[in-house]
Amino acid sequence: MVDAEYEVNNVVMTVSYRDVEFDLEKIASNLKGARYEPEVFPGVTYATFEPKASFLIFASGKANCVGARSVEDGEKAIENLTEQLQDLGYDIGEPQVKVQNMVAFVNFHRGFDLEEIARNFRSAEYEPEVFPGLVFRMEESSVAFLLFVEGEGVCVGAKSEEEIKEGINRIEETIG
To answer: Which CATH code for domain 108-175?
Structure first.
């Protein structure tokens, strides 16, 4: 059971459209607010507001979606982008979408003795003169937590909300 509360702040997803090459000039000039400056960055940057998400679109047919607050919002933003690209004449079907990272703010509703945690767990890194938080890596997982004295934290590396919940449970069981 998760006593802590969490809120997803950012979902990073990769998007692959198969067998297509995008004309980035065409995309940038037809998507409202899109920017393409090839001397600065080799892709189109594009932000949507309903749902909120940002995209990096590449000529290879690949894109990154960042800034969505949930997987569902990211999927909806990708669906909207796909429709806009189809309206521009691109013959693309359903893209291949993969969640790469979820970032969540966590309130554990209790304080942490970061020095004690650092002494007792090999998976903990704490250098208060460099950074005020403790990095706690989950074993056999890509999930890590930044823990702070006040009892708040940031979960990174999860690919689903289930992984976030599992990580929170492990922190609560391990650190107590």
So the answer is: 3.30.310.10
